[in-house]
Predict the structure of 3-isopropylmalate dehydrogenase.
Amino acid sequence: MSNPSLLILPGDGIGPEVMTEVKRIIDWFGAKRDLAFDVEEDLVGGCAYDKHGTPLHDDTMAKALQVDAVLLGAVGGPKYDNLDFSVKPERGLLRLRKEMDLYSNLRPAQCFDALADFSSLKKDIVAGLDIMIVRELTSGVYFGEPRGIFEEGNERVGINTQRYTESEIDRVARSAFELARRRNNKVCSMEKANVMESGILWREVVQKVRDTDYPDVELTHMYADNGAMQLVRAPKQFDVIVTDNLFGDILSDCAAMLTGSLGMLPSASLGAPNADGRPKALYEPVHGSAPDIAGQGKANPIACILSFAMALRYSFDQGDEAARLEAAVEKVLADGVRTADLLGEEGVTPVSTTGMGDAILAALD
Ligand code: NAI
Ligand code: MG
């Protein structure tokens, strides 16, 4: 059997710096765990524009559709801010998401004990927190028609439309229930069925998917505004949360910040399962290209490393190896190793991007 395949797209700014550490970790799994990947590397974002005049070359797009998983660093930077909208770096990322049809966006909010002091919430509310928000990513109010700014009488009106089909709700619900089965069999679905018809349909369809195909998973429903309150009041009551594009955008950012630094946050975007049951998948840190620290060896590589851990778990069925990598990160943090973005205590000297990679590799050994 051939090795599983990975397309690596480091991108711009700190993207290549953090990805260098991930590549060392990928090599470690090949050498020490007999888990080798066929890795290809290519350009996305500003660097692709510099070379090809487009932020995503058709050949790169074709590769992304073929491989088992794509791992992306970050795109963009001030150098590209004045480019035409059609060739802006983020268009490369948007094209990947669209053509891979990545409708299910997984955003974990996980609190490493060693960093619990970083949260804006009390330590006991966040210590040990481990929840996953599943955000619908390809439909809803960001895409619904009609949309636009129109003349109406003597003033203008701005219009966006929240629109969900049953099949769009069905597939993201399935993605959440599948995920729940790999975790603690518990899903909370959030909408506003009290004031939105799309929310009524959302609630109905999610319940039906659960009753028909996932009776083993516990399902509750919550209005999204209450969900926001509960997330900051008692976040540990949740395990998997599934919600629409708009509520998911806000709730996932809120949940992520319960746990501290942007340099720690991974994400996954999953699409339809292919013939062997593996979903199309793109893994990337939540942070951007951080031009303010790019090229200085200061970037925290953990968000990108944890994104690879998600790939191990969700694309390659290597949950144990993912846990091994996460435990190595946990150990390094517990030992007090910190990149500059994680400095809280006085008198701690930060390690470089490479230094953090070294420490995690040592912990893996
Ligand atoms: P950003 O996430 O790049 O940076 C925000 C702040 O967090 C900066 O102070 C940065 O130094 C810090 N930071 C981010 N990641 C870090 C890490 N791994 N280690 C240590 N510190 C880290 O967001 P910003 O500044 O809004 O955007 C910068 C550029 O990135 C823009 O061109 C933007 O369009 C792009 N961007 C790209 C994204 C992507 O590729 N998915 C997502 C967000 C922004
Ligand atoms: Mg957001």
Remarks:
- The domain at 130-257 is CATH 3.40.718.10 (Isopropylmalate Dehydrogenase).
